[in-house]
Amino acid sequence: NAGVTQTPKFRVLKTGQSMTLLCAQDMNHEYMYWYRQDPGMGLRLIHYSVGEGTTAKGEVPDGYNVSRLKKQNFLLGLESAAPSQTSVYFCASTERLGTVNQPQHFGDGTRLSIL
Amino acid sequence: AQSVTQLGSHVSVSEGALVLLRCNYSSSVPPYLFWYVQYPNQGLQLLLKYTTGATLVKGINGFEAEFKKSETSFHLTKPSAHMSDAAEYFCAVTDNSGGSNYKLTFGKGTLLTVNP
Fold first, then answer.
1. Does A109 contact B107 at a Cβ distance shorter than 8 Å?
2. pLDDT 10s digits, B8-20
3. Which of A19, A55, A102, B50 has its CA 20 to 30 A from that of B78?
4. What is the pLDDT of residues A29-53, one digit of tens each?
5. CA distance B27 to B97
């Protein structure tokens, strides 16, 4: 059972380059999320999706775009990378909620450095 | 907006000592509460959660937390620390006042060091 898989695990970019981070989950979860983790800042929500074909902005969406064309995949794009986007990026997913909140399941992260 | 405060960005204990990690939240409606643990170079794993019912919640690895509405707190404890408990711990809350209870707000984290 793979759970949440993030690709790549590590990447170095130059300022201005673009790239896409891929998140795939095999749990048939409705909700998916992208966070960034910076020292002393905890996790901050970038974008999220409540179902296939939907996306919404989180707390820190500027400079990022997302797409959810398939239920199992959630892509995070950086169109023009900036050094301020150097971070560890985590993807998470969770089931459609009923009366009890479900925990989010996390991938192992993508370490991204922008030079 | 929801906010979560974790007192102490770094807590150091001796092996066998009590672990106490503090979490306070701000919310007009009692939220759902979670503690996650992150080991080096890994993602976050759920330790325990409070949704409704009993306010003392037991989780994995001997951890437990108590929801105290009057104090808006959800502190994490473990009676006896083990070396393997060294990690970063995050408190998180949702807002279940309606419409957005699928988003989590995280605290900034507490790094737990266990000394031999």
1. no
2. 999 999 999 999 9
3. A102
4. 999 999 999 988 889 999 999 899 9
5. 9
pLDDT tens-digit series, residues B29-62: 777 899 999 998 889 999 999 888 888 999 999 9
Q: Which of residues 21-80 of B touch A (CB under 8 A)?
A: 32, 34, 36, 41-46, 49, 51-52
Cβ of B44 and A44 within 8 Å?
no
Cα angle: A34, vertex A37, A38; to 5 degrees: 145
Residues of A in contact with B41 (CB under 8 A): 108-109
Angle at B3 between CA A48 and CA B89, to 5 degrees: 80
Distance in angstroms (rounded) separating the CA atoms of residues A77 and A22 = 9
Question: Which of B43, B49, B101 is opposite residue A106, by nearest beta carbon?
Answer: B43
CA separation for the pair A112, A47 (Å, rounded): 17
Tokens describing residue B49: 């959660």
Structure token digits, residue A110: 């993508």
What's the token pair of residue B71? 């104090």
